[in-house]
Amino acid sequence: MLVSIGLGGGCHWCTEAVFQNFKGVQKVQQGYLSSNNKYTSFSEGIIVEYLAEKLPLKVLIHAHLLTHKSTSNHSRRETYRSAIYCYSNDQQKLVTTILNQLQLEFSKPIVTLVLPFKDFRESREEIQDYYTKNPNKPFCIKYIHPKLQLLQEEFSNFIK
Hints:
- The model has no long low-confidence stretch (mean pLDDT 95).
- It is globular, with a radius of gyration of 15 Å.
- The chain has one domain (2-158): Peptide methionine sulphoxide reductase MsrA (Peptide Methionine Sulfoxide Reductase, Chain A, 2-Layer Sandwich), CATH 3.30.1060.
- The chain has five helices and six strands, in the order βαββαβαββαα.
- The chain has 160 residues and is an alpha+beta fold.
- A six-stranded mixed β-sheet has the order 5-4-1-3-2-6, with helices on one face.
- 32% of the residues are buried.
- It has helices at residues 12-20, 57-66, 89-102, 130-133, 138-155, and strands at residues 2-8, 25-34, 43-51, 83-86, 113-116, 119-122.
- A hairpin with an 8-residue loop joins strand 2 (25-34) and strand 3 (43-51).
- Helix 1 crosses helix 5 (138-155).
């Protein structure tokens, strides 16, 4: 079954590169996500479409938490909102349960919000698929390479 979920937390270039490396991921859209109430402003993120039978949601969420500052309410949270954007109430309940389970693996409280998905705006074409087009750029070497190394170490069974 193909499932969609929105993820935000750090630079969408980084987040896109991280989730493009998972087996079972069919599509990653880079852009800006919004929710409702006080989270209607757009924040950098991605939409991941994945095959649930090949890639457990818990693995996706765990990777998301480990590859951005999910325990820090830093000053750039409006641009880089730490959030998981859900497409249904059932998905929202499942994500909340998974976050509660994963909290046990973190020494600080997870600040990642569980929000209903409202809207998405795709990034401009020239920055989409940024890592694949620019793997040797200084930004990629400094920020994306370490995250991909972490994926290999922590999630090798699920990485392409």
